[in-house]
D-3-phosphoglycerate dehydrogenase (Bombyx mori), 327 residues
Amino acid sequence: MVVDIKSVLIVDGVGAKCAELLNAYGIATTTKAKISKEELLMEIPNHDALVVRSATQVTKEVLDAGVKLKVVGRAGAGVDNIDVDSAGKKGVGVINAPGANALSACELTCTLMLVLARHVVPASTALKAGRWDRALYTGSELAGKTLAILGLGRVGREVATRMYAFGMNIIGFDPFVSADQCAQFHCTKMELEDIWPLADYITLHTPLIESTRNFINADVLKQCKKGVKIINVGRGGLIQETDFLQALKSGKVGGAALDVFEQEPPTDPVTLEIIQQPAVIATPHLGASTKEAQVRVGQEIAEQLVNLVKPGTFPTLLAEVTRVLNK
Ligand SMILES: O=C(O)[C@H](O)COP(=O)(O)O
């Protein structure tokens, strides 16, 4: 099937590689690093395709305004900012680049775990403020601790391999991954109820769908070890924030590193209070924000769009992505 794509709107700071590649194949592009909802509604009728990261909400209203729109490309993995159902009903295709930023998301997850274990952020902040306090920032080793990985897709597996090298016991859950597959990346598959009491660290890598919304809630937290540490580089909605704030205040959760939030940028008072907790490290959705990942996601989405216009132009796309990730 050939799709007629003459003009692509690229937003959210997608890397220049995307436009360069499309232009090289005769497809015109308009790039707007930041776009308001109003501007998007004005601009979208002029384009056959839209390329976004996670910031732009591709709602039914946007899809309805896109009278020529044929494809929405997500230069990244999660498509929860796109109304996929409405797109389907309108015959607008949704494509993404799920593997292209996995390594970067994995590396940020591992970084946050280490930084959390050794109180790097508060210790550095204190020293910059003139306080030399070694005893206050005594950390704990990761070796010998149990890491629970929830969601064993591309990112979760990469995290397992790396944290195993740090000497952690890796346990995990994913309904779509077998125990034998888990063993290949040093992970023992367990049922969720068996995971909660064992985990010293929990890291979240499931997509945000109805069944995973509020995955970490009061009932789950009750079953966890006191002082459990939680890392979320997945999606904000995976954590029930009111329950989580309570658990942070009571010490049930001993530390958290959060890169994603229910609403971004966060304005909800509960989210803002979570961010301000002393035991919390927070970053502004930086999982995929590396030079390398942004080149890859932009390129992969552009290649997929070119393939829709000229089928077979990039026949080795998946092989290429796999090669890059395994390098
Ligand atoms: O879903 C993703 O791919 C990541 O959360 C990255 O999102 P971003 O492209 O907005 O950085």
Remarks:
- The chain is about 40% helix and 15% strand.
